[in-house]
Design a protein that fits this description.
The protein is mainly alpha-helical. About 75% of the residues lie in helices and about 5% in strands. A two-stranded antiparallel ribbon has the order 1-4. A two-stranded antiparallel ribbon has the order 2-3. The protein starts with a helix and ends in a 12-residue tail after the last helix. The model has no long low-confidence stretch (mean pLDDT about 85).
Amino acid sequence: MSTVVLLTLTGLGLAALYFLVASGLALVFGLADVLNFAHGLFLSVGAYGTWWASGNLPGAGASGWGFVLAVIFGVVCGTVVAALVELVLIRPLYSRTIEQVLVTVGLSLAGVALLQASWGADPRTYPRPQWTQELTEVAGARVPNDRFLLIGAAVIVLAGLLAFLKFTRIGLVIRAGVEDRSMVTALGIDVRRAFTLVFAIGGAAAALAGALGGVYAGSISPTGGSSLLIFGFIVVVIGGMGSVVGAAYAAVAVGLLQQFVNYTSPGLGDICVVALLAIVLLIRPQGITGKVATS
């Protein structure tokens, strides 16, 4: 029983990390119809920004409120980079899908190269608060505290996004734009004004994933964001393109499946996740919460 509890909680911690990556992707694709392959760069910027701030920013550090300040700095860095990417590179290409893909893929590769040139290709030891390295006993299972940190962060981000989309005017515009952008435009609302904000929110979520993912892994590397981005896309497709709630459901399914299968056969979990993606695409191409397209 303790093993099941341990695998469940660690799987939910992994799911929380995937959700933080996927939530921004879902928002950006749902409103702006952009497959942003540079999303992993925002994650890496958040991770490296937090790592740099913990050792160089006055008041920041690897414990207590100092670590919170370092994470905030990393998230701000990711948010700014995401907004600049939308304004400078993506905005001129909204009607040119192939060019969008090429630009974001190129930016992703350039970002990895820039990080390697700045801090080297070797992994860097990540600053982690002492309590995240400790264990908490739950129903006989000794669970790493960093999993609870990830789960709590994901719940807060999910609740915040849902509240933002439901109760704010710009959130209502975004929801309407996701449902039918042409109709919203016909009503005289310029949906593109919300694109930069959506990119910024997505960048903030990705940067938070990078900052907390470093706590989870204990180290960061220039290619870490690209690795997590793969699972982020899988979660978005399974959950339904453009659905934050669907991304949450899919992240839980992917995280638990990967954790339980890897326990019985290390390495097989990734294959099972890809198999799950294939099954969903065959049975329900629009994803768990996606709507069937009507002609």
